[in-house]
Known about the structure:
This protein has about 150 residues and is mainly alpha-helical. It has one domain: Peroxidase, domain 1, CATH 1.10.520.10. It has helices at about 1-15, 50-60, 65-80, 90-95, 105-120, 125-140, and strands at about 25, 145. A two-stranded parallel sheet has the order 1-2. Helix 1 (about 1-15) packs antiparallel against helix 3 (about 65-80), helix 2 (about 50-60) packs across helix 6 and helix 3 packs across helix 5 (about 105-120). The radius of gyration is 14 Å and the shape is globular.
Amino acid sequence: RVYCSGVLTISLLLAAVVGAVVPSLVLVTDDRTGGLSLDFHAASCPQLEGIVRGAVQAERGQDVQVTAGLLRIFFHDCLPQGCDASILLDGEKTFGPNASLQPRALQLIESIRAKVHAVCGATVSCADIIALATRDAVSLAGGPSIAMPQGR
Length: 152
């Protein structure tokens, strides 16, 4: 179920990066999203969106290529079996095409995870952090503004 939602999200983010005209979108929660919701972390980590966006914005100020790096991490994580943050496992990061993932983007995800967990505890999954960081990077690069379902 999450696989289908991930494929749709990846398609939208890729369209934004390659310059396709995509209006602002809201991905709605229904039976195809596997129980994801737009307000999944509203009570457990209300600061989540601000922490992620602030960190991505600061990193993009240093290196705009981090957008491409995050998008590639998101793509490699979500296909073929759904978004689960397995791409962050040491064995996965060095396997085949994953070995050339952008180290700066991987460090950004780890930095965001540490900040979020310091503020909210371990309530937010790394898969959600990857998805939100990628969404924010694409939006900051001029792509669409997507309401990203959470709860991976």
